[in-house]
Amino acid sequence: MVLGLAIALTLPNLPSLDRVTDYQPRQPLTVLTRDGVEIAQFGAERRIYLPIANIPKRMQGALLAVEDSRFYEHSGIDWRGVARAVVSNLTGGMRQGASTITQQVARTFFLSQRRTAERKFKEALLSIKIERELSKPEILELYMNQIYLGHRAYGFGAAARTYFGKPLDALSIAECAMLAGLPQNPVWANPITNFERAQQRQRVVLARMRDLGEITEEEWKTARDEKLQIRSQLAVEVHAEHVAEMARRAVVERFGEQAYTKGYRVTTSLVAAEQQAAWAALRRSLLEYERRQPWRGPEDNEDLPEDANGAELERAAAQALKDHRDDDELRVAIVLHAGAKELQLQLASGEQIKLAGEGLRWALPGLSPKAKPALSIKPGAIVRLQKLDKIGWAIAQWPAAEAAFVAMEPTTGRVRALVGGFDFARQPFNHVTQAWRQPGSSFKPLLYSAALEHGVMPGTLINDVELALPDASGPTGWRPQNSDGRFDGPLTLRQALARSKNSVSIRLLQHVGVDTARAWAANFGLDPDKQPDNLTLALGAGSTTPLQMAGAYSMLANGGWRVAPQIIERITDAAGKLVYEAPPPAELTDDTRVLPARNGFITRRLMHEVVTSGTAARAHVVLPRDDIYGKTGTTNDAVDAWFAGFQNSVVGVAWVGYDDPKSLGSRESGGGLALPIWLDYMRVALARVPVAADPPPDGVVQRDGEWVYSEWADGGAVARIGFEPDPAEAAAASAFAASASSGASATSPP
After folding, report:
1. Amino acid 489: pLDDT
2. N-terminal to C-terminal alpha carbon distance within the chain
3. Are residue 333 and residue 442 in the same domain, yes or no?
4. Active site residue 441
5. Pick from 10, 361, 471, 550: most CB atoms within 10 A?
């Protein structure tokens, strides 16, 4: 009678079951590559919602075996289990609970975790109510998607990714059993924080599965002996953090804070393998450059207990490393013991390493008794280690320089890869879209393109001799030098670009005119107000971003059309409904052409010479194909290093420099720093791409091995620039002026 009265009084006060009958799980914002590889998730809860039909039977069986083996037999409360738990608890046996899956659903969705009689009573009544409203599969689906399983993973779909880096349906019996053991205590016994505890729990699950007939004796033995590979917390399938942040901002701007809970999925234009190749290439180039720099000393210093050894020292070192972020390539380590020629260190993983010889050579100045305090390496010093192919573990340091890389399809603008810097967590600034830097000689193809429209053809001779130009800064004027330190006299236009001759570029700008050249650069998408209105324009002394340069070079690659870069392709909601789709790229028609086709063709031929015999000849050695084009760029004092180039299906631009502009070093260049990034990316991007033909368009012919505009096939183009006036040069100039005034040569794009 008392129980009946309590139930009658409690039932009206029970919460509505709307939260379970109309289940709306909190699902994170997910960002993907175009080929479906996850880049990032944003939200407090990592969850991959799976209908019960998509949850493997072996995973369901493993969970029920250990959590609620009579789930399909009881009606919310397992009275047999309750009795068994009471007897065990009263007789001093192992303390047992008796909560069913349904009771855990009631507690998770509606009640607190406090162990009180009132909560248990309400939990029981809610369980009965839930069983009346929902089917068993629906209840199990709720549980397996909602339960917390450690490391911000909610539900078994997310846990499979978190702990094993696999989808749930790819897990083995042993892996399923490990996950099934997590609900009991996901913080205390999960395989990342304590593998031994997690494995003990896993073996309990496997034994229950065997005893209940879920698996055979043979399957039990195989699963028990399986060596599990737990996914490293540092492991990332595709590094695209800068793009993920761009996507996150776009979705939050559109949908507000609900972007983090409604399960929106953003598909970007990135190609997973190419993105990862670009990320690895950029880091490799910067780390190689960094090893050519002086040792700068430890990142930090921590206090370790004096005279501590063994387990005590290991624990103190592990505690000290908790405040320092690890990296999957530059591993954080703390110095345990320091000798004159040897270091003993401990990684964040607990592994201990001894360094000596070649692996320690870089940091030897820090081990000298006379070392400056900033360089000194003592016990407690926080340093970085890198595993090198030839010598194994070696001392390293975090790069001080930065870099950027972007690749896009020249006909659509779809961005295939974008790496905004060495490490997003340390430096979220996106150098691809936000870094305004001097393009240096990578600007020259745009200037040469302008010169073609002013009668300068690949065979035109330009005199590469020193220039003395008026300059208010000093009595000797401005005497620009060539990067190779030489003046080679008469060169053809093709030879001059291949050798990146500054004096020739200045003479071309004088011929074209500064205002005309600035306007021409604007046709390529560069901001006119960021380009100088003087002759330094010829040396790329203006400002641009890597993304702008990718757009400019796309025009040279696609035959003359400006395309808008596109990164976010579509957004869907949790149900898969399309809520945003990027508009299709503009059609490439004669009405939308910005650059004459013949101009682009001849400019490409000039740039091909750069990668076969010029400053980027290494490109043709690494990629021996006849359809690559590009230009190195190194600014004054090597403050900025560039390589921009393309094949007709993809354009890539790489940049290296310091955030606070300063010289990268007198021996550094775009060919040495940026070109390797481009090459390592292109090896992957072009691996299965056949060599493309580049047929000449209408309006060009070949004479004496050089391409020229058809109207100058028999003469009339500018023959010479920069020589002492002579009748022939004057006659050629007059002939060009006459043909230009009659409309035979375009001075601006159609």
Report:
1. 94
2. 95
3. no
4. yes
5. 550
Q: What distances in angstroms separate CA 616 from CA 495, 549, 608, 611, 671, one per listed residue? A: 13, 18, 10, 5, 6
pTM: 0.85
- pLDDT for the residue numbered 92: 47
Question: For the chain, which residues score pLDDT lower than 50?
Answer: 1-11, 85-97, 472, 726-729, 732, 735-737, 739-750
pLDDT for res 194 = 85
Spot the catalytic one: 38, 45, 67, 290: 67
Q: Which domain holds residue 67?
A: 47-225
Pairing of strands 265-268, 568-572: antiparallel
Distance CA 148, CA 365 (A): 50
Task: Read off the CATH number of the domain in which 383 is found.
Answer: 2.40.50.140
Alpha carbons 583 and 525: distance in angstroms, whole number: 20
Which uninterrupted H or E stretch holds 701? Answer: strand 700-703
Token pair of 54 as six digits: 């998509």
Contact 201, 63 (CB under 8 A): no
**DSSP characters for 527-558?**
-GGGS-SSGGGGGT-S-B-HHHHHHHHHHHHH
- Per-residue model confidence (pLDDT) at position 192: 86
Under 8 Å CB-to-CB from 498, ≥6 apart: which residues?
A: 606, 609, 610, 613, 614, 615
User: What DSSP designation does 9 have?
Assistant: H
User: Looking at the structure, do residues 415 and 545 belong to the same domain, yes or no?
Assistant: yes
211 and 346 together in one domain: no
- Do 194 and 60 reside in the same domain of the chain? yes
517-539 burial: b if 16+ Cβ within 10 Å, else e: bbbbbebbbbeeeebbeebbbbb
Q: Which residue has the tokens 């599965």?
A: 209
pLDDT at 434: 97
- What is residue 108's predicted lDDT score, i.e. its pLDDT? 79
β-pair type (265-268, 29-32):
parallel
> Domains in the chain: how many in total?
3
- CATH code, 454: 3.40.710.10
Out of 99, 441, 505, 554, pick the active-site residue.
441
User: Is the CB of residue 540 less than 8 Å from the CB of residue 532?
Assistant: no
Token representation of residue 369: 């008794």
Which of 359, 541, 559 lies closest to 449, judged by CA?
559
Specify whether 448 is located in the same domain as 426.
Answer: yes
Same domain, 415 and 539: yes
Residue with tokens 């996150």: 248
Shared domain check, 308 and 212: no
- Dihedral sign, CA of 488, 492, 498, 503? positive
The label of the residue with tokens 């790069």 reads: 399
Measure the CA–CA gap between 249 and 131, rounded to whole angstroms. 42
CA nearest neighbour of 698 among 711, 679, 715:
711
